[in-house]
Amino acid sequence: MMEGEPIVFFNGALLPEKEVGISIRDRGFLYGDAVFDATRTFGGQTFKLKAHIDRLYNSLRYLRIDPGVTKQEMERWSLEVVRHNYPLLPAQQDLWVMQRISRGVESAEPGFTPSPTVLIETHAIPFARRAALYRDGIRLVTPSTPRIPPRFLSPRAKTHNYLNLIMGELEAQAVDPDAWSVLLDENGNLTEGRGSNIFLVKDGQVSTPSGQFVLEGITRGTVLELAAGLGMPASERDLDLYDAYTADEAFLTSTSLCICPVSAVNGAAIGDGSVPGPITQQLMAAFSDLAGSDYVAQYLYHLPQDG
Ligand code: PLP
Q: Which of 32, 51, 72, 88 meets the CB 3.0–4.6 Å disulfide criterion with 161?
């Protein structure tokens, strides 16, 4: 019965995705009181799954949620769900693999302690919707909504509370429906977007905002390692709009994007506006080598034929 349909891991068992319902009193739904992480597959193989699960367990510790599942079990069940779901995809597709844990169901019963809701699910990466970004570059807009500062709620934890980033994204998309957002912090420094980290390149130097103020993306970390391996100077530091407007190159990183070039920030072209710049190109090629998959070709495969 589960043969031809996607499955999920839900509270201890593998089930068909369509049979799983989450309680209306689940605190993840009520308050965003939950954490998640997301890795992707390349040709059906998960990439850096252990690093994602380590980050997931740090997010859980930050929120003081005990998932009741070990890291090893989380990894094993994630691989099991992928093993079942990947073959159901059409050609040239890959999966996002998400682990989501909420604090559990709320109850007014005396003495009730919630037990966490644990879900592992996969879904297809939207290659077609994003393909043109690898040809044209991403247009960025920095909204007026500031990123929540770390002393209020640490951006290093990946929680279900994305409203700050969503408000920024809505504002950016009201300016340019195809734009991606990167929020500034209270001091006017670049932080991150709804699902991505930003890098700038200037005079051969690769820079990204400091880890305290953003989700420390696994891809961001990979890019810093690749840059070191290629002998490129790379650092984490404060970057503001002056740095963005005068950058030679810029790119976003995320699990699904990998590395995707940026063509403009707030309508100002990056470099001569053509993408990718030479350093971005080198890093993109090194990323493909590491992942064992030409991810750019995979995105471009999904360009509309008349596009
Ligand atoms: N910043 C935020 C807020 C994110 O949600 C994500 C996506 O997971 C990233 C950055 C990029 O992180 P990663 O490279 O681990 O996907």
A: 32
